[in-house]
Amino acid sequence: MDRPMLDVTFDSGRGPALSWADTVRINRLNAITEALQEAMRQPVRRPTAEEDRALLAHNRRVREHNERVAAEREQAERERQARVNAREAAAVRKSMCGSCFTVLPASGVCDMC
């Protein structure tokens, strides 16, 4: 093999023996390492022209969907802000005299008209 495997044998000169669970974990890691190395040795397959077109079409659909969702959110935010502004404007108009547009005193009766 071209890579060092983790040694699961017991050597009394190096310390305590590994538990069975540790040995299983190390064997599992060795198997994963071996599978990854085998996968890395495989030649890289380039996508076909049809796969490229399909991926580009999918990406375009995703982008269009994201743009639609963003536009809907922006529209909802604009509508919400318009409602807030309308409430604030109504509250200001309510505190003003309808004929001379001065701010009404606490009594609610205009002193200017």
Question: Can I get a quick summary?
Answer:
This protein is mainly α and 113 residues long.
Question: How would you characterize the overall build of this protein?
Answer:
There is one protein chain. This protein has 113 residues and is mainly α. Helix content is 60%, strand content 0%. It is elongated, with a radius of gyration of 37 Å. The mean pLDDT is 86.
Q: Total strand count, please? A: 0
Low-confidence stretches: none
- Strand fraction band? under 5%
Share of helical residues: 55-70%
Main pleated-sheet profile: none
Q: What letter string, H or E per element, gives the SSE order?
A: HH
Could you give the distance between the termini? 101 Å
Mean pLDDT across the residues is 86
| Tally of alpha and pi helices | 2
Q: Which structural category fits the helices and strands?
A: mainly alpha
Rg, rounded, reads: 37 Å
Which outline best applies?
Answer: elongated
* Assembly state (oligomeric): single chain
Main attributes of the structure:
113 residues, mainly alpha, elongated
Question: Could you give the topology of this structure?
Answer:
Layout: H1 20-41, H2 49-94
